[in-house]
Amino acid sequence: MTVPNPTPGPDPLPAADAAALPLPVLFARQVAAAPRQIAVRQGARRLSYAVLDERSARLAPLLRERGVGAERPVAVLVERSVALPVALLAVLRAGGCYLALDPAWPAARRTALLADAGAEVVLTQRSLADAVDPAAAVVLDDPDLVLPERGPDAVVHPDSLAYIAYTSGTSGKPKGVCVTHRAVARLAVDNGFLDVRPDDVFFQYAPVAFDASTLELWTPLLNGATLAVAPAGELSPVELAEAVRAESVTTLWLTAGLFHQVVDTALDALSGLRYLIAGGDVLSPSHVDKAVDGLPGVTVVNGYGPTENTTFTCCHPVTAALTTPTVPIGEPINGTGVRLLGEDLTPVPDGEVGALHATGAGLARGYLGQPAATAAVFLPDPHGAPGSRMYRTGDLARVLPGGALAFAGRLDRQVKVRGFRVEPEEVERALLRHPDVTGAVVVAQDDPHGGRRLAAFYTSDFAVPVAELRRALVTELPRALVPSSFAKLDELPLTANGKVDRAVLAARTTRRRPDLGTDPLPPDGPLQEWLVQLWADVLGLEPVGVDDDFFELGGHSLLATQITTEVSAEFGIALRARTFYEHPTIGELAEHLAAVTGGAREVPCG
């Protein structure tokens, strides 16, 4: 818990003043005002603002000894822990910028991004050190690590780089978005949609390589509040909600898909929140209304924005039942402007759909080492001050009566899957690298259980097992970019103009089990029969074999939570997400259930 009656922080800074200061200076203001306030905690571990300040200030000179200086990238490969903010602050105090790597990424992905960014130092921990070149590694929890005495921070400008975040790329190569201190400060301090108090507790659950972590990490630390780090590993919606309640969290951010599941399964556990923020994809109006009705006094916020404009561009707070058929994306946050423009870059009339362009302090500098890609979307702003820029988001929107914006689709093929931005071309190029694949198209389909999923269609002169294709993609792409289904076609459908008919493929559904190289093994007994039917319903395919791996069948984390929720309710147990990941076949799961229930519930009720 935080210290009783948290010490009030320094006088609040207006957004414009905050954006003129680098992040270490903004953090130092909070240290000076309330050094004993708890800055970070995870379970029994906690760091006060003074301790977080001291540890990061002593790690920074070690980084400088390793050659880190102005805007030099430092990779951070660290699990969720109290060590994470220490590492990030140290990089910034040394004058560098951080490149967050997700431990869940395949090794090939991490290696490629390290090379692209030119990061020669990697901050990591003992459990992950084997994945890092020893010459580059600084192992934070190494008992032999000796930190020098603290020294003065490097001089950093607000327009210096704070971090590099990679997004999916249309060329097949990820793009490194270069984000400045000014952009982060504009998001975290006086942003206009959060009223942050010293007694607030923010929950950190998003992967640090995902730009939502910018809000989770820096908003509390630059406002004198507390950062509560989620327990390690995947959490089911119920586990997540219980952790939120146990940590007395007041501000929570969730992807759209996870928001929907938590609202359906564990809404009561969120009653202590002040703000429930969701985004990354289109929100269900019925779930927003359910959250507002079931959480009196809690403000539900729909947050919209691309990584290139530092997490959020617009936000829409909801405190009463919606009066619109969709959830608006709201109005620009402080320090940001939006323009809805036509093809000639002139403003469209209110109420008409236009291409959404973002302006202001949140704009990234551009894409690392990709000047052509930068010039294509970071444009001179013809309606702003001389020299000002705007970012073409690729999204369409229109102004609603009252001034809020409504999302109206995309100009290109980019899609959101479980909150992650996906360029289908990147997945297609990865498929085409398989020597037996002659053609590939990846589309987004509506998932019958909500949200969207990726579906891959390919041509080949050979019978390529889907399991082989999936394994090939898993070795180089993040899980969010691996399609849920694969279908081999004799030829790809074409439009009258001779182009691939993606609309036909997007509307096509398949319920056939993918080729895993083996025939499906039939269930043995009522328990396995029940699990087979449950998996078939959740995955939307059949037949399902009792030795089929859930994830090789196209399952993902959100679908896994549906399995754990159903099983937990049926057997009156708490099936943890981690346990399901350790038993990803029906045979293994049935054996586990028999063990934990003593065999007393061999046949599910109903």
From TrEMBL:
GO terms for biological process: amino acid activation for nonribosomal peptide biosynthetic process; monocarboxylic acid biosynthetic process; secondary metabolite biosynthetic process. Its cofactor is pantetheine 4'-phosphate. The keyword Phosphoprotein applies. One of its GO terms (cellular component) is cytoplasm. One of its GO terms (molecular function) is phosphopantetheine binding. Residues 522-597 form the Carrier domain. The keyword Transferase does not apply. It comes from the Bacteria. PROSITE patterns: AMP_BINDING, CARRIER, PHOSPHOPANTETHEINE. Keywords: Phosphopantetheine, Phosphoprotein. NCBIfam families: AA-adenyl-dom. This is Carrier domain-containing protein. It comes from Actinokineospora globicatena.
